[in-house]
Amino acid sequence: MPLLPESPDPRFVLSSDNVRIATYEFGDPSGTPVVLVHGFASGGLLNWHHAGWTRVLGRAGFRVIAIDQRGHGASSKPHTPDAYTMPLLVSDLLDVLDTFLLDEALFVGYSLGARVGWQACLDLPDRITRAVLGGIPDGDPLTRFRTDQARECLETGTAPTDKLTAAYVKMASGIRGNDLEALISLVEGMRGGAQPDPADPPQQPVLFATGSEDAILEKSRTLATAAPHSKFFEIPGRNHFNAPTSKDFRDAALAFLRGA
Prior knowledge:
By secondary structure, this protein is of the alpha/beta class.
């Protein structure tokens, strides 16, 4: 018996700027579509399939489409910062919806994927009907990432002295297929761009979920409080890195997507 669930081959969507976006489909083709968007340095299969989300949502009757965001997984990995902006990441999502002929979809995102989801709820209010946003704070969490130290690590092997940068570089380097140059460019490209703003929240029903051991917990609560049709779920015993594997998180998300 395999240790990990069997993974389907990707189906590629060509973005508006000719970047190939890998997608993976699961569940009932006639079910309500839900799009899954992963966090920084992760991937559609790692974040959602290997963690059991695609199985649970598929068994519940949903049509599940997981995405590798640009710079991740089997998708194209440009090395220039201008290839990574929030408008482009939201445009990639729209291109996926259009390619799959989805007029409306539910959305589940974690960390970077949740930030994309927040903006997509604002920019695509007629396409995203309900969203689960996990591990999302207000403000710009990328300001603390030392791209200079990350690039030095890439070029010379010198470990970053900044703890947050070192943690992300270690995580990114430990995942097969990751391209550290592309991920550093993503940080540079998104820095200073559109950020979740409590003064301008999504109007759709949104479930915010953050780990009880995550340093951004209270900032995530702040966003949830600002959104007019939101719920908040504190994922018990989880930090920012292991929250997606929580059964409690999956169960809360499933109930919310069903309309509970």
